[in-house]
Amino acid sequence: QKEVEQNSGPLSVPEGAIASLNCTYSDRGSQSFFWYRQYSGKSPELIMSIYSNGDKEDGRFTAQLNKASQYVSLLIRDSQPSDSATYLCAVNMDYGQNFVFGPGTRLSVLP
Amino acid sequence: SAVISQKPSRDICQRGTSLTIQCQVDSQVTMMFWYRQQPGQSLTLIATANQGSEATYESGFVIDKFPISRPNLTFSTLTVSNMSPEDSSIYLCSALLGDLADTQYFGPGTRLTVL
């Protein structure tokens, strides 16, 4: 069974710190990887996508992908209380035929 | 990016009745999805809806309980039939969009309460 795993948290970090969110996946053939943010009572919104090994930066967010280790992470620099949400990792497996979400990690940024 | 809308945004229904949720995308898409999410829980995929074919249901979900229509490339409906309080949840539709049509974008969700 195709799986995406994340630490359930909650992960608590002080304001201004770096939050590190991790995700592993089971399918070596996966080609595209995504991070979503979901505020309580709202639907998931896309933060970043990443396709190649290495880092991809967008503002305070950096996604990191290591296909050999089947590992993808999201770093949030200068964390703000408004970053407090659940972060979902998603992997498009089976060459686009199977989009699998992880269970999500709840992040709390403390003022 | 495309806009995905859902109707209704919320509803309170009586046990034994049915509710149809509509999902509209402002561009043509091949694949649409329906999810259920209990408060504080992760997303649970109900079914994948491709235009022109029968929906594909995940384990634990059946067509008689959750019939889905996909009449064209911009619209889908999910019906929750013969509802019980256990069906109280948020129902989300999504679609594969983006330059590579490999990214899921979500509608705002429908909050359903069954009394």
Descriptive report:
- The complex is a heterodimer of chains A (111) and B (115).
- By secondary structure, chain A is an all-beta fold.
- Chain B has no helices and 11 strands.
- Chains A and B meet through strand 5 and strand 9 of A and strand 10 of B.
Which key phrases capture this entry?
heterodimer, A: 111 residues, mainly beta, six-stranded mixed beta sheet, five-stranded antiparallel beta sheet, 0% helix, globular, B: 115 residues, seven-stranded mixed beta sheet, four-stranded antiparallel beta sheet
Largest sheet of chain B: 7 strands, mixed
Strand composition percent of chain A: over 45%
Low-confidence stretches of chain A: none
Structural class of chain B: mainly beta
**How would you state the average pLDDT of chain A, rounded?**
93
Q: What's the β-strand tally of chain A?
A: 11
Order of helices and strands of chain A: EEEEEEEEEEE
Number of helices of chain B: 0
The pair of chains with the biggest contact is: A-B, 18 and 15 residues
Shape of chain A: globular
Contiguous helical run count of chain A: 0
Strand content of chain B: over 45%
Low-confidence stretches of chain B: none
Terminal Cα separation of chain B, in Å?
37 Å
Note the overall shape of chain B: globular
Secondary-structure element sequence of chain B? Answer: EEEEEEEEEEE
- Tell me the major beta sheet of chain A: 6 strands, mixed
The count of β-strands of chain B is 11
